[in-house]
Amino acid sequence: MVKLRLKRCGRKQRAAVYRIVAIDVRSRREGRDLRKVGFYDPIKNQTYLNVPAILYFLEKGAQPTVTVHDISKKAGVFTELHLNQ
């Protein structure tokens, strides 16, 4: 099963930045991802989402984590998902 979840990036002992990735459930947090679909910086409150890639994985049955779901909901990804169906 595939999940959309956060992958921590950045230097140690610094503010974390995260990539939003599609990854197999059995992989660890920093494990090998299937595809990078976005970026999230909680300190600067910046978000970049590759909406077509996210929609592709959601249509194939990928499950977003709670945090990724909230980020995607703010960006309006789920309204586009319902419009496509």
From TrEMBL:
Its main location: plastid. This is Small ribosomal subunit protein bS16c. One of its GO terms (biological process) is mitochondrial translation. Transmembrane segments: none annotated. HAMAP family: Ribosomal_bS16 (MF_00385). It is found in: Plastid, Chloroplast. GO terms for molecular function: structural constituent of ribosome. It holds the Pfam family Ribosomal_S16. Belongs to the bacterial ribosomal protein bS16 family. One of its GO terms (cellular component) is mitochondrion. The keyword Nuclease does not apply. Keywords: Chloroplast, Plastid, Ribonucleoprotein, Ribosomal protein. It comes from the Eukaryota.
